[in-house]
């Protein structure tokens, strides 16, 4: 039998377990998922920012019918609309409006979702350089979107945090 992952839901009720939904079956499996670093000093020492290629934009839409899920970097359902983060070229192809062109920086250390102080530390450092940042915390890494024109200064500022 060949399994195709249809949807994965990590459950808080049973840490270390997940529900895998196949088109026909529901399976409860054990996951040995690392939880990430929580020590702020370790996080800062090993912050290692990586600048992703391309330009990224924030767009809004009321639905997703013509958007390929593989083209979505991130989305968030808000009361007013769905906010999308897309490559600029994808937004242009879909004729989606945007007003902010960003660079995407990934902090490559695996930070825990329960870690405290990391966002405050890098946001404060960037603010001191007058660099606005928009943060997306994912399971493994924190992702920072800064104005494209500020990308190199942001990288230099973030690298200084590990010194």
What does this structure look like?
The protein folds into two domains: 1-33; 40-160, VC0802-like. The chain has four helices and ten strands. It has helices spanning 40-45, 88-93, 118-128, 151-160; strands at 7-10, 17-21, 26-30, 49-51, 56-61, 72-77, 82-87, 101-107, 134-137, 142-147. The strands form two sheets. Strands 4, 5, 6, 7, 8, 9 and 10 form a seven-stranded antiparallel β-sheet that branches. It has a three-stranded antiparallel β-sheet with strand order 1-2-3, with no helix packed on it.
* Class based on secondary structure composition and strand pairing: alpha+beta
Mean residue pLDDT:
83
Uncertain residue ranges: 1-23
**Head-to-tail CA distance between termini:** 51 Å
Number of domains: 2
Order of helices and strands, N to C?
Answer: EEEHEEEEHEHEEH
CATH class of the largest domain: Alpha Beta
Share of residues in helices: 10-25%
Radius of gyration: 18 Å
